[in-house]
Known about the structure:
This protein is globular. It folds into 2 domains: 1-109; 130-217. By secondary structure, it is mostly helical. Helix content is 66%, strand content 0%. Helix 6 packs antiparallel against helix 7 (131-143). It has helices at residues 3-11, 21-35, 45-68, 73-88, 94-108, 113-126, 131-143, 151-163, 167-180, 185-195.
Amino acid sequence: MMLCVVVVAVMGVAPLAALAQEDIDAILRKLDEVIGFFPPDISSQEQMDEVVKTYTGVKQRLDDLVKASPNDDGVVLKRATLQNMGHNLDLPGAFDGAQEDFWIILDRNPTHEDAIIGLANMWVNASPNYAPGAEGLFKAAQCLHQNVPLEVAQRGLFFAYHYQGRFDEAYNQARFLVQQWPEVEFYRNLVDMAGAKSSTPPKGAPNEPKPTMVACK
Length: 217
């Protein structure tokens, strides 16, 4: 994936210091394709250098925008999202910076769904130590939708349970994901992964309980 070529094309619109938010959005989307997960999809040192250069430039522009409009949750969320991606590169300060930005938004608006999910995903992917907190956030996001399943929250709960060693709950969650979104093959893989460690009766057993959604409390 040649991120550097795409990013240069996007940046040709304007110098980094003058990037409009629309340009930043485009670059964030391109970065997400490469460093929006761990491990990042980087195949050479040259590509790594280009990604870090792009990240640093956009981060500076977002710092300027946040300084100019500190109460703009949309801008703060973009910086949080960028720094979350920086955490996948183990860039110094990225995790703490993203966490601080997510909390800035949530302190102002505790029901900001994108910030709740963003922080929850970062926590659940960071360390098992953060899994209990991520579980609470995923449940909070689901509660914003009452009893209508929110896929990103339901998927996140699987990993929160799994990383806490709560394999029976993870198995139920994986089966619920398959029940709700049967077209997603990845969820069937999660059933196999959690089922191998769960004490719940095996799939297809007469006494296997029906998967249920975690109640909103």
